[in-house]
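REVIEWER CHECKLIST
Item 1: Sequence provided? yes
Item 2: Single chain? yes
Item 3: Sequence as submitted:
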Amino acid sequence: MNWLGAVPAWCWWLIALVLVAGGQQYRVVLANGEATEARKELSDYRLEVSERDRRAAAQARIEEQRRQAAAEEEGESARKKLELAKSRAADAESAADGLRGEIARLRDGHRATCHAIAAQQRQAGTSAVVVLGGLLEEADRMAGDLAAALERSRIAGLSCESMADQLHR
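Item 4: Structure as written out by the authors:
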């Protein structure tokens, strides 16, 4: 143990300090390596997330365009059906006007052919023809209006149902 005593105390302190500093430096190098690896993994993760977000946004745009196209197509189809229904309603109204004219002609003809002798009978017959003719005209007008409204409602309902089906595909 003689030789240990020949080494001054401050050398022992210096040796201890060098060993501790070397150990700390080794730990710092290891920590820097781990931090670099963690930064690389974080960068890779961010890249993966941004790519996933980009793909999801592109898919959402495609789906939105598909839905918009389906809605526009269905809207155009409904517009065409409504135009056809309006055309048919106009044709039906024209035919109804013809029938009303025929009823008026028959009413006028009935008045002209009645005999003066049966005035009471003629008046009762005329009033019945006039009342029935008026009722027929009003019923025909109402039926045309109701048919047109029903057709518009049916077209709108079918269009709405079709758009909902296309949107949920």
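Item 5: Key structural point noted by reviewer: The two ends are 91 Å apart (CA to CA).
Item 6: Recommendation: ____
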